[in-house]
Description:
Distance between the termini: 6 Å
Number of helices: 11
Structural class: alpha/beta
CATH class of the largest domain: Alpha Beta
Radius of gyration: 22 Å
Shape: elongated
CATH topology of the largest domain: Rossmann fold
Oligomer: single chain
Number of domains: 2
Amino acid sequence: MKKGVLLITHGSNFLGMGHLVRTVQLNDSLISRGYKTFIFCNNQPETKLFFKERSNLYFYSVRSNFSLINNFLPELSLVIFDCNNTTNEEISFFKQNNCKVIVIDDLAAHTQNADLVIDANRNKRQPFANELFGEKYIFLNPEIRKYLKKKTPSQPVRNIVIVIGGFDYKKFSLSLIKHFMNNFFKSDFEHLRIKVKLPHKVSGLEDSFFDEILSHQKVNFIRRNRSVLLHKKGKELIIQFCSIIENLPSKIKRSDLLISSGGLTMYEGLTIGTYTIALPQNRSERKVVKRLHQKGFLNKLYKIGEMPELKDILSIKRKDFIEFSEKNKVFDGLGCERILERIEKLLRYKE
């Protein structure tokens, strides 16, 4: 049997990086199982920055221009689309070349012609013969299984991790930090630590933030490398920046609270059991977050661009942590394994 798999994906400042993150994880998992993989991605500065150097990576300007993959087309047995608006022409092209086709998280028109459709963000059944819907197919890094046993904090919220996915082109992270900073010194709380994951590359974001700090002349501050300590009348607010949070699941587990957009990091928080607030950044994320809120997995539904009140965050009780962790045990981190099993089953039928 041919062991070649083509993964077609895309990302941008507007779309975010969720498709790319999932593609990399799926790519590495397939390689570990003996498959030869090829990645076909849109040609954008931000996607090049994300992928860096990979020998199996090909960039397209027009996705339907498959002349770029003619050299390895005979090697392919499977094509996986993890992108928006997959067309019938694209699916038909590969099926005509004797390839199985899987479509992930894109229930656009014509995807019913795919051999397998996977969408973790939907439960309603569609008229497709092969469909995998619901939370059990959330595709997360398999390493997250190490962090499922969440220790419930015994004290109120004091350590917060903020991860606004993709490139955060609206600089929402910066607005959120300013919002918290302005309200912290008016509150009754004395100490708070916030770790912020900055976008992969946003020019001047840190300097812009620190300029804002300097404008608060009544607040003393100490800047050390990529962190800042603000203090006033016995109150301390520590903010730490990092472009890439190494071992993010571990950081989420050790935090009291995760604030994220409605993407993969949100699902990591739900899976680990850390109290999670999801702030949707676009209509697509809003639909996902609304569905999770309706099912009881998220305690509050926020509008696009809406910010939580710091006083509400800092007043979360221990029982709230416990209840949140218990009701989210449905997220088990095994979505990757389930999808890989179905992929191998699909390819066995082809033999």
